[in-house]
Amino acid sequence: MGKYDELRMLELVKIEDSDSGSEVTLFFQENKTLKIKVVDDKLVSEFV
Questions:
Q1: How many C-alpha atoms does 46 have within 13 Å on its Cβ side?
Q2: Are 12 and 27 in contact (CB under 8 A)?
Q3: The pLDDT of residue 1
């Protein structure tokens, strides 16, 4: 869970999904953004 430590205790502000439906972007307090998408039938996440 260390990968997501910087998101702990931050409030989720907004959620957006892509037009293709294969990506979700989560916006948190303090301008933290997490993108989650499907690649080769697996969930992949990245901080932006």
A1: 6
A2: yes
A3: 59
